[in-house]
Design brief:
Shape: globular
Strand order of the largest sheet: 1-4
Oligomer: single chain
Helix content: over 70%
Number of helices: 7
Largest sheet: 2 strands, antiparallel
Length: about 220
C-alpha cells in the first residue's frame, strides 16, 4: 500500500513540476514575442499550466520503460523523437478537445499554421515535442531517476503529499469555476450553493484576468 501511495505521489509531483516549468516557458515566450508581458496560467491559484505537467508524466511513464531503451544511440534518439512527436501531439489534442467540449473555450489554435489538424496540433509544434522528447530522454530522465531514489525520505513524502492535495484542490476548484462560467454564458441560473459561490467569488471578470489566453469558441 505504501509503495502504491509513493508511486501516486511521485506521479503527482511530476505533474506539478511540469506544470510550473510550463508556466515559466509560456510566460517567458509570451514576454519575448509580445511588447508587453501578459500572465498566462492554467489554474486559478499558483503558477501552473497542467498540459505541460501531463506531458512530463506521460513522457516519464513511457520513456522509463526498458523496451524503449536501445544500446544503439542513434536508434534511441530516433525513437525518442518519434515518441515525443506522437505523445506530445496527442496530449495537446486531447486537452484542446476537452477544454472546448467541457468549457466552451480554447486556449491555443494553430489554424494559421500549415499542416495543422483542426487547429489543435501542428507539424511545427509536434516537431518541438519530438525535440523535447530527445532532450528528455538524454538529460531529464536520468535526473528524475536519481531523484526517485531519494524519494524514500519520510519528511519529503509528507511535504509532497501536502503539495499534491493542494494541487488537486486547485484543479477541482478551477474546473468547477470554469464550468460555472460556461453555464453563465448559456444563461443557466445558479442551482445550488456551489453555483452561487462561483458567481460571487469567480465572476467572468475575475476569470478573464486569470485565463488571459482563453477565448470563447
Amino acid at each position: 500500500m505504501k509503495k502504491y501511495c509513493r508511486r501516486i505521489n511521485y506521479g503527482i509531483i511530476l505533474v506539478i513540476v511540469g506544470s510550473i516549468v510550463g508556466f515559466i516557458i509560456e510566460n517567458v515566450r509570451t514576454c519575448i514575442i509580445k511588447d508587453h508581458c501578459i500572465l498566462r496560467q492554467g489554474l486559478l491559484y499558483g503558477p501552473f499550466i497542467p498540459v505541460y505537467g501531463a506531458g512530463l508524466l506521460v513522457l516519464y511513464l513511457v520513456y522509463s520503460r526498458k523496451v524503449f531503451q536501445n544500446k544503439n544511440k542513434l536508434l534511441q534518439l530516433v525513437i525518442a523523437f518519434v515518441l515525443g512527436f506522437v505523445l506530445g501531439s496527442a496530449i495537446e489534442f486531447i486537452f484542446s478537445y476537452a477544454q472546448e467540449k467541457i468549457f466552451g473555450t480554447i486556449s491555443w489554435s494553430y489554424a494559421h499554421l500549415k499542416y495543422n489538424l483542426f487547429g489543435r496540433i501542428s507539424l511545427k509544434h509536434a516537431s518541438l515535442w519530438g525535440l523535447l522528447g530527445v532532450i528528455f530522454s538524454v538529460t531529464i530522465l536520468p535526473l528524475l531517476e536519481r531523484f526517485k531514489s531519494s524519494f524514500e525520505n519520510t519528511k519529503l513524502q509528507v511535504i509532497i503529499c501536502i503539495l499534491s492535495i493542494l494541487f488537486v484542490l486547485d484543479i477541482i476548484v478551477s474546473g468547477i469555476a470554469c464550468y460555472r462560467a460556461t453555464e453563465r454564458r448559456n444563461n443557466i441560473p445558479a442551482k445550488n450553493a456551489v453555483d452561487r459561490i462561483c458567481d460571487k467569488y469567480f465572476p467572468d471578470e475575475y476569470l478573464n484576468k486569470i485565463y488571459t489566453n482563453a477565448r470563447v469558441k
